[in-house]
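$ ./design --mode recover --in tokens.txt
reading tokens...
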């Protein structure tokens, strides 16, 4: 996977190429979509590359500001705080992205001066990410957060407390292990630090953990005092701390309370914004409205754009996207695999769009489809943004083409999802892609004619 993801409008490809080549010449690995062709893996590869990137360069231009795809990719970079926007002409940057400082590359590459701050920022982003990632194959980005639970320290002279110290830690491991999006270091790895003079952040780094949970137990006059805290390994900051005092024979209730409070402390200390999605889904499954609101914030651009490409109507797409999330809220408690939230949400969206099509009798068999009713529009009247081109297709064609090329679904998967014969799906995709090729070919011929002296 590449370090840098470049988002741009297709008709800016030759203006963006020098930037990509310059970055690669300076040692950065760069991905942009000229390196894949149309096929069932198109959408999936874009998503994987975007998720794995350390930096997202968005090239704003008069063309890209009107592209929903570019805005969606920019939104992902902004959300993860790895967005690096550049402008190559005098376009007006979309309102939601103006707070991000934009580098001005108008007139570049006449001078390298404009590129210097970009190189500096990229070095910071790529370097910061590399320092946090464990060594090994990074072809698949990890979505798990690693937490290490240390054996609690015995602050008393009573040797019987040693058993309790390890018991509390093991109970905490069992509880945290059930949370999706978390990987809990084994007791074998963590308990070997017991009694050793090693700093907590050093322990975390040696274990490859981002969070360490430590605590202590003290017994006096028949009562137990138990303290615990969560520490962020990167900076040693305490995310959460808790202390309880109970009767000495109330061990099991002490363990349960510490475990419960630790989970709440993890949620509050990390902040939902910084948490792995599977962990946020796990909280949302329990009815946590704030957690679900975070999921909506993360996924709303993706769902809205999926609906927009399916229906071609921005107003209808926004209404359908809202209905998708309402359904998701009602059904999320039944989601068995939190790490599959994205595919699950996409299936809800597809089903909702199909219900809309069936209600309007828009899903027709390919044999009943009259090609004469779908004569290609004059390419000069169509802005050659793919979103606009998709809008010229029939609803069944647009749905099948979007699911195939943008979402990476196979023909068989689409047939199952939309509940139509496989042959019908293939016919819709064939006619849709032929229509798009005709538009693109006519557009290129028109452009070449205009450029000729």
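writing sequence...
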């Amino acid at each position: 996977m590449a370090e840098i993801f470049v988002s741009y409008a297709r008709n800016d490809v030759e203006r963006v190429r020098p930037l990509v080549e310059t970055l690669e010449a300076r040692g950065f690995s760069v991905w942009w979509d000229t390196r894949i062709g149309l096929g069932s893996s198109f959408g999936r590869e874009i998503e994987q590359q975007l998720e794995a990137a350390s930096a997202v360069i968005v090239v704003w231009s008069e063309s890209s500001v009107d592209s929903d795809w570019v805005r969606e990719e920019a939104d992902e970079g902004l959300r993860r705080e790895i967005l690096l926007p550049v402008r190559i002409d005098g376009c007006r940057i979309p309102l939601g992205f103006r707070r991000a400082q934009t580098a001005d590359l108008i007139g570049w590459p006449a001078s390298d001066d404009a590129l210097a701050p970009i190189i500096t920022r990229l070095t910071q982003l790529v370097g910061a990410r590399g320092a946090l990632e464990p060594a090994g194959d990074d072809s698949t980005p990890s979505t798990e957060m690693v937490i290490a639970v240390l054996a609690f320290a015995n602050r008393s002279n009573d040797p019987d407390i040693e058993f309790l110290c390890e018991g509390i830690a093991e109970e905490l491991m069992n509880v945290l292990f059930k949370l999706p999006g978390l990987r809990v270091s084994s007791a074998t790895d963590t308990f070997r630090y017991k009694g050793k003079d090693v700093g907590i952040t050093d322990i975390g780094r040696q274990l490859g953990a981002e969070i360490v949970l430590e605590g202590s137990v003290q017994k006096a006059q028949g009562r137990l005092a138990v303290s615990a805290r969560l520490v962020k390994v990167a900076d040693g900051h305490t995310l959460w701390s808790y202390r309880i005092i109970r009767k000495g024979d109330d061990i099991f209730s002490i363990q349960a309370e510490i475990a419960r409070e630790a989970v709440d402390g993890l949620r509050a200390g990390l902040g939902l914004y910084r948490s792995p999605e599977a962990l946020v889904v796990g909280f949302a499954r329990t009815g946590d409205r704030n957690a679900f609101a975070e999921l909506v914030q993360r996924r709303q651009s993706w769902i809205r754009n999926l609906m927009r490409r399916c229906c071609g109507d921005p107003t209808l797409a926004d209404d359908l996207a809202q209905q998708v999330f309402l359904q998701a809220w009602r059904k999320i408690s039944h989601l068995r695999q939190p790490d599959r939230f994205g595919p699950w949400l996409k299936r809800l969206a597809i089903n909702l769009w199909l219900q809309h099509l069936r209600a309007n009798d828009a899903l027709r068999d390919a044999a009943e489809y009259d090609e004469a009713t779908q004569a290609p529009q004059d390419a000069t009247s169509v802005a050659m943004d793919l979103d606009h081109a998709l809008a010229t297709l029939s609803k069944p064609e647009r749905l099948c083409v979007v699911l195939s090329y943008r979402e990476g679904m196979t023909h068989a998967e689409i047939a199952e999802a939309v509940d139509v014969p496989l042959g019908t799906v293939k016919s819709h995709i064939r006619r849709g892609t032929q229509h798009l090729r005709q538009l693109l070919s006519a557009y290129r011929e028109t452009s070449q004619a205009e450029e000729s002296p």
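exit 0
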